[in-house]
Amino acid sequence: MSRTEPRFIALAVALAALAGFVDALAYTSFGGFFASFMSGNTTRLGVELGSGMVGNGVMALALIMCFIAGVILATVVGRAWEKWRQPAILALVTALLIAAAALAMVYPGAQVLLLLAAAMGAENGMFERDGEVTIGVTYMTGSIVRIGQKLAHALMGDKDRLAWGPWLLLWLGFIGGVWLGAKAQANLHWQALWLAVVAAAVLTGIAALIGKVGQRKVREVGQPPQ
Fold it and tell me: Would residue 224 be called left, alpha or beta, if left means φ above 0 and alpha means ψ between -120 and 50 degrees?
């Protein structure tokens, strides 16, 4: 993240907040299952199977598979529209959230959560370099590890003493989104999903503007931005 432009860091924080918002809706609506936190669903998979609760275990596994499917879709979309990769991926995320919100209006069941998991998987394809994800916007364990590592480096005298800051912002963005999601679910129930749709659509537009500026820089400077 130290080589990431501030505008992309801000976008990553906003996406983490969106992921937290959606995760809160999923968790509070489906008895402790997650839309973006696959470590939690993996733990549930093992616990439920170990406890003989096969149905819940199957649900946890289905969520993990849908999350992976979202990652695959984002990778395919990103390669197909390479010059507009970020807005194209966010358009995919928005479409999946629209499908989930629309389905929730007529049939608020487990299928809604599966669509949300796919959307959150796709969201993780936003920041990639050389085929590897550089910023996992739903992976807060990794962000917390990075905070600890960067703080340790600062304490040992590394030049960039504030390298932990962007990772802290990412975590704060996520937890802020979770707080908003819990509040929205308590007041709006499934209708709160439409707030996530609006947020994703706005972020798609912002990503498109960022991409346009980036392409202009490529034409003017002759090299892509960092």
Answer: beta
